[in-house]
Structure to design on (447 residues):
């Protein structure tokens, strides 16, 4: 059976002619003038492979991901070696414009196979099934025919295996303390001499920057996603976009969040995966603060290629090695956490959240708040244990927030700091958990 292709770009003419001279295995079903037309042809099921012949600069990771999401592969033709390498990195199948007809047919067949293969299914943003990071798999062609073989193995500069762990802080609506825990957990990890990236991926109310006293308006994560979308994010680029925040425990690298909630579509799933992957290639820990909502909005819309409101949150939760679900320890926060754990299980079946209650206090739970909370959780909560209880300490947390300091710096002996440190300490480190790193002269954080 012939593979139907939709084509765009000024350089298809010659390839088309060469194809016409042999009994070929592809059939052109649509010649498009606009990218939107090409996408529509693919989305409608008319084409199994999109061909971009020349003018490939508009091919981004998001486009490849969107096509893969509907089972469509992509072949790009360009004479620029560097551009071919970029396209390979995005998951497109690239070749030069003078590719012989036979080679072109092989590329199309490989792209079509790849788009319906298991890697593509896992890579697509529409897959909620696995923890496999999309960027390691997004359309990364494995076939012998891929142009990687013909054009070299890329830059070879990046460490190949990710080494860091992704730890996500998530929880229901109602400000249970996701950001407070994420920022301070990251600071504790830095103090353990670990290289840490802190990423603000909350698309509803990003607030890592003010928690750290940063007057940063650069939206580092959105910038990193843009670079990743072009297939140009490596560790050095990521380091440049991150704000170095020097704490008493060591240096934290921070990717600040979007500056306004209505800019959520700057954090697309495919490029965010690439950012997370790049971060864990260089860091020991990647701590991510995410928004509360895990609603999968493609269920509400027939436009499966449209950007999804909660794609960033869902992608982080899918990729997280450890997911901390933070609930507020009161009569409103607990049932909210119970319900949201159910929603999480439906949206991200692979998720295995660690339950942590924050703002634990007598005024909300009675004389013995810890016991009251554990009893109530046993009766009403899902069958998973509470792994941490963080006390409510208004003055301490407010003072740290006011000074833009972490609790490790502002109140190292406070129970709230100790409880957060316990969440990320190994047993050996737990023995030394109250040790306070000495301040270093000249330490300043950017403002
Ligand atoms: N253990 C605590 N004790 C006292 N105050 C706390 C504690 N944890 C968080 N807070 C305060 O609660 C408020 C909300 O905290 P935070 O911003 O961390 O919540 P969030 O879940 O990230 O909220 P958002 O929905 O805005 O993302 C802040 O004013 C913070 O200082
Ligand atoms: Mg927050």
């Amino acid at each position: 059976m012939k593979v139907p292709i939709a084509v765009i770009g000024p350089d298809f003419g010659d390839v088309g002619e060469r194809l016409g001279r042999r009994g070929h295995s592809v059939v052109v079903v649509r010649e498009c003038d606009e990218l939107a037309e090409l996408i529509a042809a693919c989305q409608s099921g008319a084409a199994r492979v999109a061909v971009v012949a020349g003018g490939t600069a508009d091919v981004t990771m998001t486009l490849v991901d969107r096509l893969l999401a509907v089972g469509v592969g992509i072949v790009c033709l360009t004479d620029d070696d560097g551009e071919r390498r970029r396209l390979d990195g995005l998951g497109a199948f690239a070749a030069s414009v003078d590719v012989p007809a036979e080679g072109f047919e092989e590329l199309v067949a490989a792209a079509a196979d790849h788009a319906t293969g298991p890697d593509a299914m896992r890579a697509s943003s529409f897959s909620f099934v696995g923890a496999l990071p999309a960027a390691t798999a997004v359309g990364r062609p494995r076939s012998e025919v891929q142009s990687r073989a013909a054009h070299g193995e890329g830059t070879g500069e990046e460490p190949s295996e990710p080494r860091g762990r992704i730890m996500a802080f998530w929880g229901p609506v109602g400000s249970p303390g996701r950001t407070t825990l994420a920022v301070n957990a990251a600071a504790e990890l830095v103090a353990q001499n670990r290289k840490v990236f802190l990423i603000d991926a909350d698309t509803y109310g990003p607030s890592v920057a003010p928690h750290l006293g940063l007057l940063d308006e650069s939206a580092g994560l959105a910038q990193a996603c843009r670079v990743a979308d072009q297939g140009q994010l490596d560790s050095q680029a990521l380091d440049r976009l991150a704000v170095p925040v020097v704490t008493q425990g060591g240096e934290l690298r921070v990717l600040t969040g979007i500056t306004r909630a209505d800019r959520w579509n700057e954090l697309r799933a495919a490029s965010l995966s690439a950012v997370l992957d790049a971060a864990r290639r260089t860091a020991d820990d990647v701590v991510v603060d995410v928004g509360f909502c895990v609603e999968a909005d493609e269920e509400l819309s027939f436009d499966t290629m449209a950007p999804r409101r909660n794609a960033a949150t869902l992608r982080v939760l899918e990729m997280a090695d450890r997911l901390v679900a933070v609930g507020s320890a009161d009569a409103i926060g607990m049932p909210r956490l119970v319900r949201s754990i159910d929603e999480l299980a439906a949206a991200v079946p692979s998720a295995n959240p660690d339950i942590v209650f924050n703002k634990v206090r007598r005024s909300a739970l009675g004389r013995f708040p810890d016991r009251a909370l554990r009893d109530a959780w046993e009766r009403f909560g899902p069958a998973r244990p509470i792994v941490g209880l963080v006390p409510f300490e208004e003055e301490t947390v407010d003072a740290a927030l006011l000074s833009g300091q972490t609790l490790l710096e502002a109140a190292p002996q406070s129970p709230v700091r100790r409880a957060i440190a316990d969440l990320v300490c190994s047993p050996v480190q737990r023995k030394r958990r109250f040790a306070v790193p000495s301040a270093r002269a000249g330490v300043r954080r950017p403002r």
